[in-house]
């Protein structure tokens, strides 16, 4: 039947209401239709049969087949929640947990947080009614602390298993053990590609259920010569596609929020210059710290005649499927945690992706039609410079967090823990040593009372130690603020390109002596004094959303502090106590001023520098403690606080010897001189 649109008569209220209903029904239809169109749908029955027949099942299916959104619904429909138990589904990424649960709630016609919910660190969007629970793998790990047999779940889905995050890898070992004594628990391991055999072997030869993918051909293009500036190359490629290629959305893979924002600004600027000469180009970002109402924008349908460009981190590689992507632009990089087990130095660096990743990315272009993937590197580089597969996270990160968690679950022998791939021996040993130095373990490697309290906090051991040390130094109120501001890993400062000078002046106005931690505290305090005003944030180039999140985190940490029976007390005048408390947690991260404005880490003599955004950048104190390292052109310390070397002996006597901390002078460099030196070094 063909329909032709009739002339539209401006409606009455009643008419409009009717239209809303029909639109609603249409949307319902589309959801039903979409569900039926997914590759997993024809396998619904056989999948449920396989799940009924086996306790553990490995499910392999290409990204976008409907594994994450559909399978939990099938299980619900099949009655797996009848006895009052839940279905859990883990995700390696926060954004995925949030966005997928939102989608499933919509498909089921319920409010997010009721029957369908999600749980991520510092944010629990579930309720008594929740039966489908999406959560980060890290949150499920923490649930083991309160419910070691996961008794409230009838099914647990370890999703995106191929991502091989540290937490997922640990979950494998724990959950395999639980499945042995809880024969009623169904366990599904779901993965996008390849590794199914390996998972099957690990889970005592569990059967593999394969969902055949549908995929259209994707043409791969490489650049002729290496690109010096891949952000710029992305922008140019997007515009080339937009001008020369048929309609269809574009997906660009970048490494993080900053790159995405830069790319977005450049694209906006250049399309504005082109004006009406080109078709409409919608630019939508997606990354972990993007506010959730903006995350859903990537899923909105592109209006007819327009083109959408999605600027994404590798969240879009397998965790999220965005429909209608025809073109993929892949610069070939990814941001990764890297860890040096010898020096204990951890840092965030941009690294080339693996071939497996590059092929996943390309695959995103072929879901709805034949697509094209533009790789911003040469074919030679692909062949010779990319590794076959990414190294699992467990083999390249600090294990302190996980060790303390496993210890509090009563798993003492970590060397013989059932790892899918074991971590390097020296990493494990270093984690044990660090926890010992922090006082979390005794010399037998057992959890101490302090360690037990530390495990209550969903933060790194150094941070939980800092929080607990605030009891002794009587400044828990201030430390809570500092911890919350540091844990909120999205940027506090708003720095629009056209107002950089104003923004930087505003930022500098918050600087207080002693270091960035105190500056962060100052910002929070001023904001709290305005009764958490958004206007105040706006006027001071502070990101209101980040502050609100810091406030949420702070509230939660405060609750945990009560749980471990530490009073919230304030000692605002005394920054020495505050800085000592920071030192008590972060004493590994100590660096000493060396020649030419450089710093050297105390234990391993590695060269590091103060980040240019730090309030200490021009101060160059003799001794500093940093919160984290980021590697760009050099190893930069981000969030730095000034300390005195003798504090280290006070807070970590079993770690530092006074000989290591000898210093002819405790004085700072004269102001100004330090700056000249740094510039000399950096130019
Ligand atoms: P898989 O887990 O196998 O990769 P998913 O279940 O995530 O597949 O995706 C199935 C479908 O659901 C895809 O077409 C995807 O675009 C759609 N989808 C997922 N999340 C959302 C969302 N938040 N909004 C709209 N559509 C979504
Ligand atoms: Mg999925």
Radius of gyration using CA atoms only: 27 Å
Strand order of the largest sheet: 4-3-5-2-6-7-1-8
| Total beta strands | 21
Category by helix and strand content: alpha/beta
What amount of the residues lies in strands? Answer: 15-25%
Compute the average pLDDT: 89
The total count of helices amounts to 24
Largest sheet: 8 strands, mixed
Q: Which regions have little confidence, pLDDT < 50, spanning 5+ residues? A: 1-26, 670-683
Helix content: 40-55%
Principal-axis shape equals globular
Give the end-to-end Cα distance, rounded to a whole number of Å: 72 Å
Small molecules held by this entry: adenosine-5'-diphosphate, magnesium ion
Write a concise keyword list for the protein shown above:
alpha/beta; 21 strands; globular; binds magnesium ion; eight-stranded mixed β-sheet; binds adenosine-5'-diphosphate; disordered C terminus; single chain; 24 helices; 683 residues; nucleotide-binding; six-stranded parallel β-sheet
């Amino acid at each position: 039947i063909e329909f032709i649109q009739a002339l539209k008569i401006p409606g009455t209220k009643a008419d409009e209401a009717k239209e809303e209903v029909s639109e609603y029904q249409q949307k319902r239809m589309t959801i039903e239709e979409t569900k039926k169109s997914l590759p997993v749908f024809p396998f619904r029955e056989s999948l449920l049969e396989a799940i009924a027949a086996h306790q553990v099942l490995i499910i392999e299916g290409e990204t976008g087949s409907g594994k994450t959104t559909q399978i939990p619904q099938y299980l619900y429909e099949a009655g797996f929640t009848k006895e009052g138990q839940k279905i859990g589904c883990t995700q390696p990424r926060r954004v995925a947990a949030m966005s997928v649960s939102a989608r499933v709630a919509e498909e089921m016609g319920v409010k997010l947080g009721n029957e369908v919910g999600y749980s991520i660190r510092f944010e629990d969007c579930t309720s008594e009614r929740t039966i489908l629970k999406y959560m980060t793998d890290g949150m499920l790990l923490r649930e083991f602390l309160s419910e070691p047999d996961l008794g409230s779940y009838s099914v647990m889905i370890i999703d995106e298993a191929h991502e091989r995050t540290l937490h997922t890898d640990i979950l494998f070992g724990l959950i395999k053990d639980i499945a042995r004594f809880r024969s009623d628990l169904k366990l599904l391991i779901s993965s996008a590609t390849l590794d199914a055999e390996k998972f099957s072997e690990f889970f005592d030869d569990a059967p593999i259920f394969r969902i055949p993918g549908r995929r259209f051909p994707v043409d791969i293009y490489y650049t002729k010569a290496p690109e010096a500036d891949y952000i710029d190359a992305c922008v140019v490629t997007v515009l080339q596609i937009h001008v020369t290629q048929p309609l269809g959305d574009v997906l660009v893979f970048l490494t993080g929020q900053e790159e995405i924002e830069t790319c977005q600004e450049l694209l906006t600027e250049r399309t504005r210059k082109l004006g009406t000469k080109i078709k409409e180009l919608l630019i939508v970002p997606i990354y972990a710290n993007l506010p959730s109402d903006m995350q859903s924008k990537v899923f909105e349908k592109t209006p007819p005649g327009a083109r959408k460009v999605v600027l994404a981190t590798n969240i879009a590689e397998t965790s999220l499927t965005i429909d209608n992507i025809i073109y993929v632009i892949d610069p070939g990089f990814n941001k990764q945690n890297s860890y040096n087990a010898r020096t204990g130095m951890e840092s965030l660096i941009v690294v080339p992706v693996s071939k497996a990743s590059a092929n996943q990315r390309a695959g995103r272009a072929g879901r709805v039609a034949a697509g094209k993937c533009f790789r911003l590197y040469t074919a030679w580089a692909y062949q010779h410079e990319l590794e076959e597969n990414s190294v699992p996270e467990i083999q390249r990160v600090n294990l302190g967090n996980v060790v303390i968690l496993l210890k509090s679950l009563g798993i003492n022998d970590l060397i013989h823990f059932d790892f899918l791939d074991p971590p390097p021996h020296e990493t494990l040993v270093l984690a044990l040593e660090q926890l010992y130095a922090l006082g979390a373990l005794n010399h037998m490697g057992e959890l101490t009372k302090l360690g037990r309290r530390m495990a209550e906090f969903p933060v790194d051991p150094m941070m939980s130690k800092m929080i607990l040390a605030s009891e002794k130094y009587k400044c828990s109120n201030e430390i809570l603020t500092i911890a919350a501001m540091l844990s909120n890993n999205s940027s506090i400062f708003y720095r629009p390109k056209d107002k950089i000078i104003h923004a930087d002046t505003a930022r500098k106005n918050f600087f207080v002596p002693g270091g960035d931690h105190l500056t962060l505290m100052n910002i929070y305090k001023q904001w709290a004094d305005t009764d958490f005003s958004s206007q105040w944030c706006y006027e001071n180039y502070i990101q209101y959303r980040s502050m609100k999140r810091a406030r949420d985190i702070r509230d939660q940490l405060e609750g945990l502090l009560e749980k471990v029976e530490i009073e919230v007390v304030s000692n605002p005048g005394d920054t020495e106590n505050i800085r000592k408390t920071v030192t008590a947690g972060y004493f590994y991260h100590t660096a000493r001023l060396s020649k030419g404005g450089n710093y050297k880490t105390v234990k391993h003599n590695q060269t590091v520098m103060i980040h240019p955004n730090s309030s200490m950048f021009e101060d160059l104190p003799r001794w500093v403690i940093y919160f984290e390292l980021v590697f760009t052109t050099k190893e930069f310390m981000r969030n730095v606080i000034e300390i005195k070397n003798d504090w280290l002996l006070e807070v970590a006597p079993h770690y530092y010897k006074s000989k290591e901390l000898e210093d002819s002078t405790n004085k700072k460099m004269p102001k100004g001189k330090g700056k000249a030196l740094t510039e000399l070094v950096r130019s």
